[in-house]
Amino acid sequence: GRFCRNHECGNSKFWYRLPGEPEERKARACRFVPVPGMEITVLSAELKYVLRDVLAAGSNAGNSE
Asked: Any alpha helices (H) in 1-65, and if so which ranges?
C-alpha cells in the first residue's frame, strides 16, 4: 500500500468502536494495537484496497453454494 514511514500520511486511518461504548474512535492502523471485541466501522480507501481480498473472503463466508 501507499503508506508513509513517519505515521503522518493518514492512509491507514480507520474508525472503530470498543465493546460497551457507543461512540466511534479514530486511529491509524500503523500505530494501533487491536483490542479483543472491538468493531471496525470504517476503513480508509487505501486500507480497503490493500485488504480487498480479505474483505471479499469475509463477505462470502457462510455462502455455500
From this structure: 45-50, 52-60
How, if at all, do strands 25-28 and 39-43 pair?
A: unpaired
Residue ranges of domains in the chain: 1-52
Structure confidence by residue, pLDDT tens digits, 17-65: 999 999 999 999 888 999 999 999 999 999 999 899 999 998 776 665 5
| pTM attached to this predicted model | 0.76
- With beta carbons less than 8 A apart as the criterion, state whether 11 and 1 touch: yes
Between CA 64 and CA 42 the distance in angstroms is: 27
* 26 Rama sector, left if φ>0, alpha if ψ -120 to 50, beta otherwise: beta
Residues 6+ apart with CB under 8 A from 64: none
